[in-house]
Amino acid sequence: MSDVIEELVNREYAYGFHSDIATDVAPKGLSEDVVRLISAKKNEPEWLLEWRLGAYEHFLTLEEPQWQNVTRPPIDYQDMHYWAAPKPKGPALKSLDEVDPEIRATFDKLGISLAEQERLSGVAVDAIIDSVSVATTFKAALAEAGVIFCSFSDAVQEHPDLVRAYLGTVVPYRDNFFAALNSAVFSDGSFAFGPAGTRCPMELSTYFRINAAQTGQFERTLIVAEEGASVSYLEGCTAPMRDENQLHAAVVELVALDDSSIKYSTVQNWYPGDADGVGGIYNFVTKRGRAGARAKISWTQVETGSAITWKYPSVILQGDDSIGEFYSVAVTTNRQQADTGTKMIHIGKNTTSTIVSKGISAGHAQQTYRGLVKVLRSATGARNHTQCDSLLLGSECGAHTFPYIEVKNDTAQVEHEASTSKVSDDQLFYCRQRGLTEEDATAMIVNGFCREVFDELPMEYAVEAQALMRLSLEGAVG
Amino acid sequence: MLHIENLTATVADKTVLRGVDLDIGAGEVHAIMGPNGAGKSTLSNVLAGREGYTTTGVVTLDGIDLLALAPEERAGAGLFLAFQYPTEIPGVGNMYFLRTALNSVRRAQGLDEIAAVDFLGLAKEHMARLDMDPAFLSRSVNEGFSGGEKKRNEVLQMSLLEPRLAILDEIDSGLDIDAMRIVASGVENLRSPERSMLIITHYPQLLDFVRPDYVHVLRNGRIERTGGHELVRELEAEGFGPATVPVP
């Protein structure tokens, strides 16, 4: 047991390389000028600039929240770049073949193919380096089905009315400190739109890569499913190894109109920092969806990276009979910290929410589940089931659970189950007696612990998630 | 095949085995009986390589020094332990577990791995012999299994892994007579000239179904008596006899 934990603690981050890509960066610091510069760089319409400036103005009135159950040095918001983009090597790209070979090589190294002919799994990819989307695959095939999938910047240019209609409607810039910051300086992200009655023909996915140093990444993702539409989307994230902390403050908004469904999956593997807790990404993200009548929003997340993860993908169950789901696996090792969970806000009648959270801690990591289940007076017949399990590897780590339950309607049924367990010596010995190495045994037991969540991932990624888990829990055989 | 010489084992400053000597030849079935606390489970744990014991003495399997090997290496060398209390592994499918175990052992023995498709057929064949429902394969390892199901699952694993030496630690505990009959006949079917067995039990009944070639009484950390099947009857009639003070 102790050997495996040691390996865990000493694991190496596989995506820590830095690519030598010529980068265009804004001067350090946050100001109205920087907000204007970003908007100008992106050739944005006036209304969007005004919106950003409104957010910036509001941001100036806010103080950074301190209630998370994590410890960290203060962030100097003037000591980072708010805009970084790979420099274009010539005029605008006409096809994917023209993507800078260095960028292609970066994504190849990450195992993400930008070549459409390599259509193995039928997944459309939007690739984002630092602040800018560098390529989106399968645009044409999706357009045929009526689905729009492109970078947020392209959406602003090509579908401004859609963006304007939905931007900030689920997470307004007044929502919180980081949402305000993001709204002022967001750079890029993905936009997906499923028109009424469409079933998206393939998985949509975005791959986020932080490359430039001393840069914050503020992406904005907006997914809209009109009446009866269904969209499945997955994001993956990595970053180079650096001894500084980099801030990633994203906002994701999901709009699921009546009878639609959105499935949003995350495989987050930002650089977690080294064994002593130096460096790593601060992943402070606001994710929320609003579900109309009979609509379903499902969040599935596998969180293995980041020095600090702080996010609560939430669902506002506004329409009657709407469904919200949250399936989460969070792994923290070394000095990683995570304060994560979800919020389910029941407004409509007979709304249902399910929360399954699996937390795995090793080394000196601290992990907190924080969840809110709120049933409003109007939500007659609302139901929630929450299951919150923690698995501890070793004796130096910690797991904490803060479930908040507010019920204003006495017909509601709310259930909360929680457990904390360890990989037991009995389990390990049993597996080893059957011929498995200690490492294989640990990986198998941990994967079993996460089974209910992995089952929710799109097929193409379930295997990847298991491999990632294994990698996270692996050094060399002791 | 198995050679044990002057084996001692200490756990948390308590000496449990005080010099066990035992030789099991190829194809032989030996039974070890003894009162509670005699060191029966310690013996099976030590042979299988469980951590937490300090040992001295010699244990070889086919000439290989077992005490120098990790538990998984002992499994690879052909040692199988059927557990008294098989542990539950939530979320891990029984079929996946069985195949991983089989392939781990096969790899250790330099054999090719068995693909998932072929394994399913193989597993079903073995299960039919044990009168097991194929639905077992899709359940999590031992999770929610009844006592009898757990023990049958142990025998199934033994059947699939084809060990050189099988140690059965109280495979009969917690079973009613019908379940015991099924488990025992499963074990009996696995008797072969190539395979030795060490059956650890409290109760004589099992030994009516699986007839051992030799019966040993383990008491006070030593093999106190050795005999044939008639010893079982004797113990049944007279018990293990008055406790003796262990030699310091």
SSE layout and pairings?
The complex is a heterodimer of chains A (478) and B (248).
Chain A: H1 2-9, E1 23-25, H2 32-41, H3 46-60, E2 84-86, H4 101-109, E3 123-129, E4 132-136, H5 139-144, E5 148-151, H6 152-158, H7 160-166, H8 177-185, E6 190-194, E7 203-209, E8 220-225, E9 230-238, E10 245-248, E11 251-256, E12 261-268, E13 280-291, E14 296-303, E15 308-311, E16 314-317, E17 323-332, E18 337-346, E19 352-362, E20 366-375, E21 383-393, E22 398-407, E23 413-422, H9 425-433, H10 438-454, H11 459-472
Parallel strand pairs in A: 3-7, 6-8, 7-9, 8-11, 9-12, 10-13, 11-13, 12-14, 13-15, 13-16, 14-17, 15-18, 16-18, 17-19, 18-20, 19-21, 20-22, 21-23
Antiparallel strand pairs in A: 1-2, 3-4, 5-6
Helix pairs in contact in A: 2-3, 3-8, 6-7, 9-10, 10-11
Chain B: E1 2-11, E2 14-24, E3 29-33, H1 40-48, E4 54-61, E5 64-65, H2 71-76, E6 79-82, E7 89-93, H3 94-108, H4 116-129, E8 140-141, H5 147-161, E9 165-169, H6 177-189, E10 196-200, H7 206-209, E11 214-219, E12 222-227, H8 230-238
Parallel strand pairs in B: 3-10, 3-11, 6-9, 9-10
Antiparallel strand pairs in B: 1-2, 1-4, 4-5, 7-8, 11-12
Provide a descriptive summary of the structure in words.
The complex is a heterodimer of chains A (478) and B (248). With 478 residues, chain A is α/β, with parallel strands linked by helices. Helix content of chain A is 23%, strand content 35%. Chain A has eleven helices and 23 strands. In chain A, strand 3 (123-129) and strand 4 form a beta hairpin. The radius of gyration of chain A is 22 Å and the shape is globular. The model of chain A is unreliable at 1-6 and 116-122 (pLDDT under 50). Chain B is of the alpha/beta class. Chain B has helices spanning 40-48, 71-76, 94-108, 116-129, 147-161, 177-189, 206-209, 230-238; strands at 2-11, 14-24, 29-33, 54-61, 64-65, 79-82, 89-93, 140-141, 165-169, 196-200, 214-219, 222-227. In chain B, helix 5 packs parallel to helix 6 (177-189). The longest helix of chain B has 15 residues, at 94-108. Chain B is globular.
